[in-house]
Please model this.
Amino acid sequence: MNEQKPEISVLIPLYNEVESLQELHEEITGVIDSLGRSAELLYIDDGSTDGSFDLLKELHAQRPGVRVFQFRKNYGKSAALAKGFQEARGDFIITMDADLQDDPKEIPALIAKLEEGYDLVSGWKKNRFDPFVKRTTSKMFNRVTCLLTGLKINDINCGLKAYRREVTEAISVYGQLHRFLPVLAQWEGFRITEIVVHHHARKYGVSKFGFSRFTAGFFDLITVLFITRYTRRPLHLFGFAGLLSFLFGSAISIYLAIERLFFNKFLSNRPLIWLGILAIIVGVQFVSIGLLGEMITESRKGQVDYATRNVLE
Model:
């Protein structure tokens, strides 16, 4: 292990990619050597079962600055990135997938963009070599996410990204939130941009893309919208929904009361009365949930940290 603090950390999460690792390693080390800057490679083996770790042990022995972390089981890409961000020592952190679809030759351009003053640079796979279904769903995901979050980039989930260290220290990656790292970074006030990068067709193995990513992506988007907009003011979300429900139920109840008092209409056979009562109860419950959230937020407000760009004292 190279004890000198590196300028650059290249972080590669992987799961069952033994066929591509040797070629990927050679391409990355070639780019790093051409830069003439100190760097380290971090491989995060997310519980591979195909012999990936045995090859990583060989790569570790061959070159200083190669660091390998093996999970006991498959936790997912977010966990691998979180571990890598925690262990990375470089000022600039590059992430890329291990399937050879990301091009290591893009690393100098990503770093150059960071040095222009940006905090996170995302790759844009403008010309993708993926199956039709994956390309189509990815476009839909990017458009919907950008529309709802206000982030103005074209490819949010590209694995090839460059970060300043302060970004990885400020954002929390868990669950499947690795898809939304630019959104989380933007919410913390960091400067985000993207550059067009080369994308290659998969040479080995099979894609880990599956139908479960549709539902997971939808729920994760809801999570991101909540934690970026309402985590510090939950009553604004639950209170608004509760108020609408309460007013709707109250309007129904007033309407039925007028009919009973002034038009002598009986209500025992009117299902509408139960809808009004239900809407009022739901409204009260939503407001109560929002108040409980505000109490929790108040109790931990001393733990809240706010991202600061510069300090002059």
